[in-house]
Amino acid sequence: MALSFFGIALFVLLGLGSDHGSAPSAHAATSEEVQITYGTVLKLLHEKTKFRLHSHDVPYGSGSGQQSVTSFPNVDDSNSYWIVRPQPGTSAKQGDVIKSGTIIRLQHMNTRKWLHSHLHASPISGNLEVSCFGSESESDTGDYWRLLIEGSGKTWKQDQRVRLQHVDTDGYLHSHNKKYQRIAGGQQEVCGIREKRADNVWLAAEGVYLPVTGSK
Questions:
Q1: Closest CA relative to residue 155, chosen from 38, 1, 44, 46
Q2: Which end of the chain has less neighbouring CB within 10 Å, N or C?
Q3: Residue 75's CB: how many other CB atoms inside 10 A?
Q4: Could you tell me where the DSSP H helices lie in 5-143?
């Protein structure tokens, strides 16, 4: 069942705020100038196919056997929400803006696992598998993604085209119109590819965008 905007906002205020002291107010994004900050809960839209980055508590039947990641056609599914988190051990905090070239993590909101990649082969195309792995207390460098903004932008905003490059494998987060037929029927494969293509560009879409509290 899809969560309403107010349900997501309540999750942000109660869940994320407990990790960082008092919770800031959340707001719906309406402007092309809205900044993406740490703690934001969002959906990532695949520019070319208009599917959204998605996961669910279903393991791959091959490769790592970890929680599968796909791209999903429907707008109103809560399994497409991701929390933007900083790299551990840095001074970054909730509400800080995110510069191009920064290493981030994406935490799947419903299962609390991290967007992950490694050298296992993806199920359909045989590229780098992308999965969800770990927990609140378990995260490693396989969860690290470098944010790369296309064009002249310096900090991540809602209207900007971005790529996410996996730190360990150099693979870009990628999707294409190759679809699953069974367990995730109609959903597209998500994988990693070590070259820039039109199929590895993403945009921030629906979500709860936390206000900027750090310096720009």
A1: 38
A2: N
A3: 13
A4: 5-11
Q: In sequence order, what E strands does the chain have?
A: 27-28, 41-46, 52-59, 67-72, 82-86, 103-108, 114-121, 128-133, 145-149, 162-166, 172-179, 188-193, 202-209
Secondary structure letter of residue 135 according to DSSP: B
Stated pTM of the model:
0.86
* Cα angle value 113/92/3 (rounded, 5°): 40
Q: Which of 3-7, 127-131, 169-173 has the lowest mean pLDDT?
A: 3-7
With b for 16 or more beta-carbon neighbours within 10 A and e for fewer, the 76-92 pattern comes to ebebbbbbbbbbeeeeb
Cα 176 to Cα 191: distance, rounded to the nearest angstrom: 9
CB 98 within 8 A of CB 38: yes
Checking if the pLDDT of 80 tops 80, the result is yes
pLDDT at 56: 93
Buried b (16+ CB within 10 A) or exposed e, 4-41: eeeebbebbbeebbeeeeebbebeebeeeebbbbbbbb
